[in-house]
Amino acid sequence: MSRNKHILFLCTGNACRSQMAEGWVRHLASEGVEIKSAGIEAHGKNPRAVAIMAEVGVDISGQESTQWTPEMLNWADIVVTVCGHADEQCPALPTGKTREHWPLDDPAKATGTESEIMEKFRSVRDDIEYRIRGLIKQLERKGNKES
Questions:
Q1: SS3 assignment, position 77
Q2: DSSP secondary structure letter of residue 67
Q3: Considering the domain boundaries, does residue 37 fall inside one?
Q4: Confidence band for 1, pLDDT divided at 50, 70 and 90
Q5: Rounded to whole angstroms, how far apart are CA atoms 27 and 24?
Q6: CATH code of residue 19
Q7: What's the domain range around 124?
Q8: pLDDT over 70, % of the chain
Q9: What pLDDT is attached to residue 47?
Q10: Environment class of residue 141 by beta-carbon count within 10 Å: exposed (0-12), middle (13-18) or buried (19+)?
């Protein structure tokens, strides 16, 4: 890529989905990608999200749960909202920024046995990985065209 790309994942509470997305990008992307995640509010990391990411060798335990700021929006080249609430609440982006919406289920709202809840977290984790791999390929293609 000709210059670093800045990606911001935005969620309601920056506890599960945006944290997993940040972790996947850190794990899979080249050095030319910088990543942050934030929430409309900061709810703290969900321990189940930390656990299911660790199952696949991705450590998100050191990531912070933060609330978005206007500076983050200015910093980002791409803003990805990972839930409907964040998509609705996301302010208008500065000119030249790209916005994508990934309507991911909230695993924190899963009900049932602990095993069923963890399966929901795994399903969302795997969906995010698939989407992240596609986003990285898209960025690499654009980077090759700019070179």
A1: coil
A2: B
A3: yes
A4: very low
A5: 5
A6: 3.40.50.2300
A7: 5-139
A8: 94
A9: 97
A10: exposed
Residue corresponding to tokens 């899963």: 110
Does residue 144 fall inside a structural domain? no
Contact 20, 49 (CB under 8 A): yes
Query: What's at 71, amino acid-wise?
Result: E
> Across the strands, what pairs with 80?
9, 100
- The amino acid occupying position 16 is C
CA 17 to CA 131: how far, in whole Å? Answer: 12
Burial class (CB in 10 A: 0-12, 13-18, 19+), 113: exposed
Q: C-alpha distances in angstroms, 145 versus 6, 33, 56?
A: 18, 16, 32
What's the total number of domains in the chain? 1
Q: Is residue 53 part of a domain?
A: yes
Q: Tell me, what amino acid is at 54?
A: A
pTM for the whole structure: 0.91
> Catalytic residue numbers?
11, 83, 90
Position 51 confidence tier, pLDDT thresholds 50, 70, 90: very high
- Predicted pLDDT at 133: 96
Residues ≥6 apart with Cβ < 8 Å to 122: 52, 55
Q: Is 147 within the bounds of a domain?
A: no
